[in-house]
Amino acid sequence: MGFLTSTAAVAVATALAAATTTTPGTAAAVTPAAAPAATPAAVAAASTDSAFMSTAALRSRFADGEFAIDATAITGSPTPSGVVRPAFVGSFPVLGLPDVRMSFAFVTLEGGAFNQAHTHPRGAELLFLTKGKMDVFFVEDNVGPNARTVVNTLNAGGATVFGQGLIHGEQCVSEGPCEFVAVFNNPDAGGLTVAPRLCAGPPDAVAAALGTTVAKAEKVCRGVAMGPSAGPSRD
User: Fold this and answer.
1) Which of 11, 20, 84, 229 has its CA 20 to 30 A from that of 26?
2) How far is 152 from 178, CA to CA, in rounded Å?
3) Is 234 strand, coil or helix?
4) Cross-strand partners of 103
5) Measured between alpha carbons, how far is 154 from 100 in angstroms, rounded to an integer?
């Protein structure tokens, strides 16, 4: 939402000054005078400042076509194992409207592929599987007696939820590809892929987290994936 424009700010300051009288040699006293009517200039300034607009007026700023999003046209970051196509407010401002405030991602995984463990720091997620069969999991946070990993298997038409900020991920376990839509309750839910972001830390801290030497940690980190990736080698 926008800040008060300079014209509107001047109008507000003028109105406040008009409601205050000062007698030389005495402290300023606020009079009970009725609030002055807004000037045409102030009304015009406020009408173009999103902080003073109704939700319907904000919607009127968008063309009809901006309310329709073709998820298949989003490039995303494709890999041989799949692609994640996010739709956040930065690319689709209509998602940030006060009565909308949500975002989504359209994800395709090849058979056997993983959507790497990740979090959404600013949003909870509802995942709906439209194609294939998929294992899903989330890891409970550190607090409380039930710190656990929750694992489920979804068939097409199934759904699951992940709490805001919890580490979670998916693997397509069908022979053919899987497709799902993830809907978030924040227009800027964000995304943080666990392994590569951990590996971006100071080498000593990464090695300590992995319980190994710096050299071995660096070798492990060279193989981590940011996007969808194939299943692990059993060698």
Assistant:
1) 11
2) 15
3) coil
4) 184
5) 28
